[in-house]
Design a protein that fits this description.
The protein is of the alpha/beta class and 356 residues long. The protein is 45% helix and 11% strand. A five-stranded parallel sheet has the order 7-8-9-10-11, with helices on one face. The protein has a two-stranded parallel sheet with strand order 1-4.
Length: 356
């Protein structure tokens, strides 16, 4: 009843969304991003003509993420509202939806660690608290069989996936032109960090063997979880949408915790587990927040890595990013924060690997 008390009938909004999708425009935008992913674009900075704005004829009420976390239908409404907003303002990126439960999906599904919601007025995705008994709980996880994926928040993630497919079948244009992003499963080190807590960075020195065993367990669970997601919500295109941009492969691995480790530790504790995931899912991209200058040169050594998403270029040495990412024929997704990209010079033929 929660959804209907706040919004009403979900189909009213989906019908509105369906009516505003212009198939010709969506085909053009998808093909432009496809050409970018395949390297088939002219020399120079890659740009796409945005959609013509298509405001809604009805009001889409704002929904707080804390409310959406408690009601699957409200969660569906909130992610499709994002697509409505993109149409309303005219946008040059692909429209996507995902089960939007935040960074704690795998930690909660795997070990039932507690979610905690942010203050209501922040309207921000939740996080999770670490395991209560530290190393003791980690050792239990390592010794135990791989946990079930249909438990805790995993139940809701896969339920949302099934409802996505029902909507896809019911609304042809939504089904064809609103693409599916996989759940935010972070990356193996991020998940291990969230579960273990910040003590994991001391344990890289003190208990490296246990850390490796734990990372392998997390990686196996990660693959098991996303295998089920792609069984429910198939992606046979050969491409994945990274925040509205297209890249070859099937997954986005997040590496925010990597900013805390040295290049040597990155090579030992992060790269091997990322690569297992990228190879299993036929490639993809890596995302990180913060300053990653120390590991940017490592990306070119990855197997099955096709792109890098950097959310804060102003914190990074962009000349290094250009030379170690786009000059190595990897796609670079970023934002031109504070004009930081304007002063970076690179050959025009390499700029076609950059999407801002």
């Amino acid at each position: 009843m929660f959804f209907h008390e706040m919004i009403g009938d979900l189909d009213i909004y989906l019908q509105d969304l369906e009516s505003r999708i212009d198939a010709i425009e969506e085909e053009r935008i998808y093909n432009d991003w496809l050409n970018f992913a395949n390297g088939s674009v002219p020399d120079g900075l890659f740009t796409i003509e945005p959609r013509v704005p298509k405001p809604s004829a009805i009001k889409w009420p704002k929904v707080n993420i804390n409310d959406a976390l408690k009601d699957e239908t409200l969660m569906l409404y909130s992610v499709y509202k994002g697509c409505s907003d993109s149409l309303a303002r005219g946008f040059d990126r692909l429209m996507t939806v995902r089960p939007n439960y935040g960074v704690g999906i795998l930690p909660n599904a795997m070990a039932n660690v507690d979610f905690f919601e942010m203050a209501y007025e922040q309207n921000t995705l939740p996080n999770v608290r670490p395991l209560k008994n530290g190393v003791e709980d980690v050792e239990k996880i390592v010794a135990a069989p791989l946990p079930d994926i249909y438990q805790h928040v995993g139940i809701h993630v896969f339920s949302i996936g099934k409802k996505f497919m029902e909507i896809k079948a019911k609304y042809p244009k939504i089904g064809k032109y609103i693409l599916f992003d996989h759940p935010d499963t972070q990356g193996p080190m991020d998940v291990a960090d969230l579960l273990w807590g910040s003590d994991i960075f001391f344990e890289l020195y003190e208990s490296p063997e246990l850390v490796h065993k734990f990372l392998q367990k997390v990686t196996d669970y990660y693959i098991k979880f996303l295998d089920e997601w792609f069984r429910i919500v198939p992606n046979n295109t050969g491409y994945h949408v990274v925040y509205g941009r297209l890249v070859k492969g099937k997954v986005l691995v997040r590496n925010d915790s990597a900013i805390n480790v040295s290049p040597d530790f990155f090579l030992e504790f992060i790269k091997p587990y990322d690569e297992q995931i990228l190879e299993h899912f036929n490639g993809g991209a890596i995302h990180f927040c913060g300053r990653g200058d120390h590991f940017l040169p490592i990306f070119k050594e990855y197997k099955s890595l096709n792109g890098v998403d950097m959310s804060q270029p102003h914190l990074n040495n962009m000349e290094l990013a250009f030379s170690e990412i786009i000059d190595k024929n990897l796609k670079l997704f970023t934002r031109n924060n504070k004009g930081v990209l304007d002063s970076v010079l690179t050959p025009a033929h390499q700029l076609k690997n950059l999407a801002i």
